[in-house]
Amino acid sequence: MEWGNYSMHADFVLLGLFSHTHFPWLLFSLIFLVFVISVASNTVMIILIHIDPQLHTPMYFLLSQLSIMDILYITTIVPKMLADQLVGQKTISFAGCTAQHFLYLTLAGAEFFLLGLMSYDRYVAICNPLRYPILMSRKVCLLIVAAAWLGGSVDGFLLTPVTMQFPFCASREINHFFCEVPALLKLSCIDTSTYETAMYVCCIMMLLIPFSVISASYTRILITVCRMSETEGRQKAVATCSSHMVVVSLFYGAAMYTYVLPHSYHTPEQDKAVSAFYTILTPMLNPLIYSLRNKDVTGALKKALGRCSSRRIEDF
To answer: The G-protein coupled receptors family 1 profile domain covers which part of the protein (predicted)?
Structure first.
């Protein structure tokens, strides 16, 4: 299909993060370092949860799923961006942009729902500890993970075909470092206001549903914690919940800024900075927040390192 002088399926040009910085290779090195730390720390988290019997609980099973999502999330965007900087190429094919767009929406949506459902796990553990093995059985955990992936997939399958069917004839240059919806819609040469309104409502719903679960869960948790007489139990409850709330605040806050705040209140450069935060930094911060504030995870890591060192000594 042709629209004006532009092919609907022609390649796009990603202007990226490096075009407006005076030290592109320094930024490249920092992003590469963050990427390596993110993949390594999330992989370590998954391995620890798998090998340590003390971490075979619903909370850590859900954390392992969060780590899987974070690995997939960051690898959808960062390797392409770094490779383009290395070879001096900024183009991305229409099919590549569509695939990246779909994977980004699916993984982001799945993480939204998983973070919301993880608060239910904390609610049951603190408010109904005697019924925890029943209410958070393996079947329930699998249903929670399936629901999160299904919710994210619905988001990807609904928004990707509609976004990519618009004729992009204004320009092929995307003022972003990946194929994000708002940046893509700016290239369309037809009015997209109706679709943007529908997408706005969809994003509100996607944020509102998990946020409602989180708010209800933590309201009940707060009431229960205030009634606790044991200081140790109260501190443990606050420690596990605070880690989750920090991650939720980082991820939801950045998403609300990008998709809920009207476009007139932020510039393309601010959009790129916020997107870099929740697509590059957040996957690295998640495992660090949960491990540094969690004695079970740090204990499992020490045991794993101890076993590795003892095996090396035996080999010698």
So the answer is: 41-290
Distance CA 245, CA 236 (A): 14
This prediction has a pTM of 0.87
The H or E element spanning position 14 is strand 12-14
For residue 148, count other CB atoms closer than 10 A to its CB: 25
CA of 143: how far to CAs of 136, 211, 213, 247, in Å? 10, 19, 16, 22
Lowest mean pLDDT among 2-16, 146-160, 170-184: 2-16
Average pLDDT over the chain, rounded to whole? 84
Q: Considering the domain 12-16+23-306, what is its CATH architecture?
A: Up-down Bundle (1.20)
DSSP letters spanning 100-138: HHHHHHHHHHHHHHHHHHHHHHHHHHHH-GGGHHHHT-H
Name residues whose C-beta falls within 8 Å of residue 298's C-beta, 6 or more positions apart in sequence: 291, 292
